[in-house]
Design brief:
330 residues, alpha/beta, seven-stranded mixed beta sheet, four-stranded parallel beta sheet, 11 strands, 42% helix, 18% strand, elongated, binds 6-O-phosphono-beta-D-fructofuranose
Amino acid sequence: MGKGKNNIKKIAVFTSGGDAPGMNAAIRAVVRTAINYGTEVYGVIRGYDGLINGDFIKLDSKAVGGIIQRGGTILQSARSKEFRTKEGRQKAYNNLVSEGIDAVIAIGGDGTFTGANIFSQEFGIPTIGIPGTIDNDLFGSDATIGYDTAMNTVVDAIDKIKDTAGSHNRLFFVEVMGRDAGFIALNTGIATGAEAILIPEKVTYLEDLVITLKRNKRKGKNSAIIIVAEGDDSGGAYELASKVKEVDNSYSTRVSILGHMQRGGSPTLADRVLASQLGFYAVEALFLGHKGEMVGIINGKLAYTSMELAIKQNADISTELLRLARILSI
Ligand code: F6P
């Protein structure tokens, strides 16, 4: 690829929405790829709020040194209300123009791309999205940045909960994040040998769960882990635990909400490599004239998906994995 293709001389990069481990590795890749092609990069602080307030910092190669292994995001993040208004977006655009920025890279999830999509359509500024969210709920990439790390964090936590569940013959309801998607729950459930996995993509029947628990008891299983995705229709771990208690009060029950610990920590190897690839491809995508698209990796290969499709279409959850999980937990 030649230098400064498509006359792009200054790129703005920001992270927005829920942070995800690996976002720093993506920022690093964006900065160093752009610099390699003679293009300057400006980091925007606190996502869309920073665009609206004109909060930019120039990022050179050194500024992104020593961050590949760090969780969180050096650019910080926010969920901006003002950017949802036309006036807010106009302010953001004016700031980009006065900084001389001619392209934008947005790292985030659903909400981030919804904003980026409207913004690039309204003002025609070339914008590329990088999928960064622990939820893995975007169409157009086999995995999103942060998903692998979050799952490893969950597995580590549940392994520990299993130790104490076994010592006390307890039934644990463990709630994991994922917003409206059950990817984290399904995969961590398989990896920890959970007795049941409840996800939003599948209707939860209390009777079925109670039957499973009774069957386990008959087989001599004295403790159990039920993984509940936060978006499950049962209403979450606390509600489900109390519904089960109403039907069968014979268990010593505890609830554990893993919460925001799932968003922190040093990114795994998989997330660092994915983030490096996507940061690199996002810059090249701009130089190749792509706009309004998200870069992703599907079956090991670079894939472009319109941001509109990435947020509208549901990422497929594997029914095969669900079937397998049920059989392996008997
Ligand atoms: O999108 C990432 C995520 O952690 C979801 O899993 C969760 O529903 C949400 O963000 C929590 O948002 P907040 O950090 O604003 O409480």
